[in-house]
Amino acid sequence: MGEERAAVWADGALVLGPLDVPVKRWFSRPVGPVSQALRRLGARRGLGRDEFDTVGLDRHRWTDDWAASGVA
């Protein structure tokens, strides 16, 4: 569990959000702020995958994963 915040801007105007989920509150990933923002940007869920996974952000979902990858 963690915290998510997201907002989407287009042409200098706020078009979604700001959206947030309080710390330590469980939420369904498909309705989470990041998934909503990615949908607004055009990402679509795949079979058994949320928008986060579909655009490849799942490579760094957990701190240990991106730290081990050597990505700065």
Detailed description of the structure:
There is one protein chain. The two termini are 24 Å apart. The chain is of the alpha+beta class and 72 residues long. Helices cover 26% and strands 22% of the residues. A hairpin with a 2-residue loop joins β1 (4-10) and β2 (13-21).
Biggest beta sheet summary: 2 strands, antiparallel
Q: Helix/strand-derived class?
A: alpha+beta
Number of helices: 3
Helix content: 25-40%
Low-pLDDT segments:
none
Brief overview:
The chain is α+β, with helices and mostly antiparallel strands and 72 residues long. It contains 3 helices and 2 strands; from the N terminus they run E-E-H-H-H. It has helices spanning 33-40, 51-54, 63-69, and strands at 4-10, 13-21.
Note the topology.
Blueprint: E1 4-10, E2 13-21, H1 33-40, H2 51-54, H3 63-69
Antiparallel strand pairs: 1-2
Question: What are the salient characteristics of this protein?
Answer:
3 helices; 26% helix; 72 residues; two-stranded antiparallel sheet
